[in-house]
Amino acid sequence: MKNMLWLIRNTLRSTFRKKSSWIIYFALPLAGVILSMLIYGNTNGADLRVGIVNQDGDRPVTADAIRFVEELGHVKVTMTDEASLNKEIAAGNLDSGIVFGAGYEAAVREGRQPDIRIVSAKGAQVTAYAKAMLDGYVGNVAAIGQAAKGDAAKFDAVYAEYKKNGFKMDSDSLKDTSNVKSMTYQSIGFLLMFMMFSASNMTELILKEKENRTFLRLLASPVSARTYVLSNVLFTAFILLLQIVFTLVVMRYVLKIDSGVPFAVLLASLFLFSLAAIGLSLLLVAFSKNSRSAGALQTLVVTPTCLLSGCTFPPEIMPDTIQKIASFLPQSWLLDTVTELQSGRTFGSLYLNLAILVGFAAAFSLIAVYRFSRNNDVRQFI
Amino acid sequence: MNVLEIRNLTKKFDDFIAVDNMNLSVREGEIFGFLGANGAGKSTTINMVSSLLRTTKGEIELLGRNIAKHPKFAKSNIGIVPQDLAIYEEMTAYENVSFFAGLYGLRGSELKERTIEALDFVGLGDKHKSLPKNFSGGMKRRLNIACAIAHRPKLIIMDEPTVGIDPQSRNYILNSVRKLNRMGCTIIYTSHYMEEVEELCTRIAIVDHGKIIAEGSKEQLKSIITDTKEIWIAVKSEGAVDLESLKRLQGVTAVRLEDQTIKINSKAEINNLNWIIQQLIKDQVEIRSVEEQAPNLETVFLTLTGRNLRD
User: Fold this and answer.
1) What's A175's DSSP letter?
2) Is B90 in contact with A14 (Cβ distance < 8 A)?
3) Whether the complex's predicted ipTM surpasses the cut of 0.95
4) Are A221 and A108 in a shared domain?
5) B83-129 pLDDT, tens digit each
6) What is the pLDDT of residues B238-254, one digit of tens each?
7) B82 with A219: Cβ contact below 8 A
8) Considering only CB atoms, which chain B residues are within 8 Å of A219?
9) Side-by-side strand order, sheet with B155-159
10) What is the number of structural domains in chain A?
């Protein structure tokens, strides 16, 4: 045990002395999270930018309607003309526009539906909130007009009373978690990919020790091959744990991304996956003659499996057959676990997913150990 | 007392027998030369003694204990200086020695003292903060030795410790070997430089095809070949020398050409010098000098194995 700790300490020291290690193990997963934020974070929580065109002149009822829109929550109003409105929407400077046509006030005074047009380049879902609120307000004012039956004094009296009481509206902001879920999913996807590359890099140290002959000296000391490999596995697990904790802490407390999954549960799920990643990297090392071939094998295995399982883009865009193949990959099971946790399932209820991840780790490691032990050549390490 | 005792040692790789029923003993306080051409079986033997390879058959005892039964004891009492440098380039000289010594259980002030002691011993005390990548080949070889001695092993195995280094570093290493020996270490020394072995070693074993074919002091080995003489003929140019025609002469057992010198091994009882010279004159080879050499280790090795040590 003392020797194992001594080996881990030495490996940690020489690893973190290199700047490249900090980049590979911490900066790259963080870059993945930031990339996910850029992809999915644009529409989340931002105010709706609405351009208003008033073609009805300085009519007080029209001005009140415009003020109503201005006072809506999560709406930022810009007064403009119709030509500029289309240009601004096309340029992406505005999300939508509301055109109060000429005769708006006259129409509502008479109890008719006024000429209001809503313009948007992003579809109805973007304007639905403002439209629904405005429809309610205009409907009320038109109802006053209907009740007044063309009597301007009566309309003014009732409208003044309506204005005094204000347009009573209670609104509760419900968080749109769909983007956050997508962002978390993709961030975890990138993290998985970098965890797999990191695990491979670290287990490749076994082959590098072999190449620079230090393994001969290590095995000639009271350290057994088993102790050495186990120390490498523990070292790799420790670094992956640090990588997970660092990424999750930055996601949650610095970038304020709430994954919707308790921190400890997400940490535990990812750590289970890290065991599968270590098992796979040991397997790659066991079947490689040198660090170069291990590196090539790592790229050949990690990159396509991460693509297939949806680490870099949503799996739904892939054909059904490919999605079925992804079921044989540990990354898919971890991402599925995260999705299920986000949709409210408990950690315990996902025992099948978790057991499959442990199964992957055990199967990879056992094959690697078998492969190691079958080799009688001292140059092949064990 | 024997520090190392090897009995009926055999190592097979599938059908290939690398070490064949070898018996060998190394006494306490010896510098023991272990000679063999490439592929003779010496590295395999060393790997088995160092517990890097399992034996197929036979026993190895270190300080009276079977190394298969007491691997930790054996490993703790052996220091290995491998032929290939086994150091971390990204760690300082101090960190290298300290790390390897730590594997033998040394910690704290004891570890620090032993590390400094080992670095001072190989003359790298003032370079302890330097990275090996900035070292010369000789300095790296010395660091390679320091990493093997900090835990004060009883037996040090040095496999070609002077390969590819400058004469100054080589002398330093040879002196270090003598000094270690004077301090009580038993040393097994392998080298392709016969003069090093002849100069350093108190006893020598010659291994060929996995077997010890001769063992003893230099004098004992040389006495084996009293029936052989060696003639050295310095020539002006190597180009015209026809080694095959010389080999066909009566009594000649081996001929080689090194540095414009024809080295001929011949049966001692046959006086064939005249025929040799006549053959060279016939081949129009210009002779500069002729010497009959007393048998040396090189002659012994060549006679016994039919090969040069560097083959």
Assistant:
1) P
2) yes
3) no
4) no
5) 888 899 889 999 999 999 999 988 989 999 999 989 998 888 898 88
6) 777 888 889 999 989 88
7) no
8) 51-52
9) B78-81, B155-159, B186-190, B31-35, B203-208, B211-216
10) 2
